[in-house]
Amino acid sequence: MNILDKIVLNKKAEVASAKKHISIKELESSALFSRPTYSFKEFLLDPARTGIIAEFKRRSPSKGIINDKVGVEAVTTAYAAAGASALSVLTDTDFFMGTKTDLFKARQANNIPVLRKDFMIDEFQVIEAKSLGADIILLIAAILTPKEIDTLAKLAKSLGLNVLLEVHNMEELQRSINPNLDAIGVNNRNLADFTVSVDTSYQLGEHIPAEFMKISESAISDTETIKGLKQAGFNGFLIGENFMKQVDPGVAMQEFVKGLK
Ligand SMILES: O=P(O)(O)OC[C@@H](O)[C@@H](O)c1c[nH]c2ccccc12
């Protein structure tokens, strides 16, 4: 069984257990549930920002611990101050050492869009994402049928959430395109075997219809890569490890951004 299958199996059990502890009614009555959300597209296209979606990630299955010494408020506020167009916060605990509280804290501390980075397989998680303060949810084509994508994306849109679809190959892109998506992200990392190549973005990017924001995800570690991707029409750049592996990820992003000008 590959890692993605393991994560999904684990996630099913996690969601089943979460549902026993809190009802959808309770989630819907939380203070954050009824708030207006930030527009992902607006922040990506804002010329005063960088297009970078800066990620708070303590650990990953491919790298092990990346940084478990830094706090989510300090890092995400520094990312926002450095010009992030959005923040990405891992909420998976078992494989990424993230927590739902991390997302809630990032929301409270910032006024730019926040992405709930998790493996969404159930409508419960979408409602929970809104109640925790997310503005954007991630739907991963590799683990969802087109029907599931449609159901989850429609629910997200009905709650005012933005939807980012992640694809890794042409087949996933073609079968998963859906009018309820806001952005399509090409993951340069193959989640099944962890190999990375930014070429994946160039190959798939030209097949993403113009109505969607185009995002390149993973393995971005220099500003030249971003400049090239911008030329190819990409609007957003999801960066985690390159910042998180530094003692001060916020300062690392600040330094990185200087190279974009
Ligand atoms: O740390 P990187 O290589 O900059 O990658 C960030 C982000 O793209 C990556 O964490 C990611 C992309 N898709 C995911 C899905 C689930 C968890 C994590 C991810």
From TrEMBL:
Q: Which InterPro entries match?
A: Aldolase_TIM, Indole-3-glycerol_P_synth, Indole-3-glycerol_P_synth_dom, Indole-3-GlycerolPSynthase_CS, RibuloseP-bd_barrel
Pathway(s): Amino-acid biosynthesis; L-tryptophan biosynthesis; L-tryptophan from chorismate: step 4/5
**Xref: SUPFAM superfamilies:** Ribulose-phoshate binding barrel (SSF51366)
Gene Ontology MF terms in the entry: indole-3-glycerol-phosphate synthase activity
**Which part of the chain is the Indole-3-glycerol phosphate synthase domain?**
4-255
Q: Which UniProt keywords apply?
A: Amino-acid biosynthesis, Aromatic amino acid biosynthesis, Decarboxylase, Lyase, Tryptophan biosynthesis
Question: What's its EC?
Answer: 4.1.1.48
Q: Which top EC class is given?
A: lyase
The answer to keyword Lyase applying to this record is yes
Catalytic reaction annotation: 1-(2-carboxyphenylamino)-1-deoxy-D-ribulose 5-phosphate + H(+) = (1S,2R)-1-C-(indol-3-yl)glycerol 3-phosphate + CO2 + H2O
Q: Which Gene3D superfamilies match?
A: Aldolase class I
The superkingdom listed in its UniProt entry is Bacteria
Its family remark reads:
Belongs to the TrpC family.
Q: What is this protein called?
A: Indole-3-glycerol phosphate synthase
Which species expresses this protein natively?
A: Mucilaginibacter antarcticus
- Organism placement in taxonomy: Bacteria, Pseudomonadati, Bacteroidota, Sphingobacteriia, Sphingobacteriales
Q: Which gene encodes it?
A: trpC
